[in-house]
Design goal:
CATH superfamily: Immunoglobulins
CATH architecture: Sandwich
Number of domains: 1
Radius of gyration: 15 Å
Largest sheet: 9 strands, mixed
Shape: globular
CATH topology: Immunoglobulin-like
Distance between the termini: 34 Å
Order of helices and strands: EEEEEEEEEEE
Length: 122
């Protein structure tokens, strides 16, 4: 029997966007059930057309779309403007990277759509 081992700590999370709409999310970090203090870490959230693409369609950094949540040491807020989400409909690839150590923490497919989005059931 073959076991799978990963040297990458990343977790896959699919996300959905409505095209030409402002959007914001909060990522809350925990470790073994306890709050993980992320203050002082540097981050980048980017979206590309596909994994391995050299061009970033959207790139957010601290104080430019990303910010630490006020009064919480384990939360990161992500904010997209309507102009940033005004891109071609389709499936893209996204990553949240801790840039001070060059590690991807979260990644997955990002679907941009004009149609209905229901995250409660989809």
């Amino acid at each position: 029997m073959t076991e799978e081992i990963s040297f990458d700590p990343a977790r896959k999370v699919p996300i959905k966007f409505r095209i030409n709409r402002q959007a914001n999310k909060r990522f809350v970090f925990t470790e073994n059930g306890a709050e993980l203090d992320i203050t002082g870490w540097t981050w980048e959230f980017f979206i590309k057309r596909y994994p391995g693409d050299l061009k970033k369609t959207i790139s957010l950094t601290l104080n430019n779309g990303l910010s630490f949540t006020v009064y919480e040491t384990n939360s990161l807020d992500v904010f997209f403007t309507a102009l940033q989400t005004d891109i071609q409909e389709g499936q893209y690839y996204w990553e949240l990277v801790r840039t001070d150590i060059q590690k991807t923490w979260l990644n997955g497919w990002a679907v941009f759509s004009y149609g209905p989005v229901d995250n409660a059931t989809d």
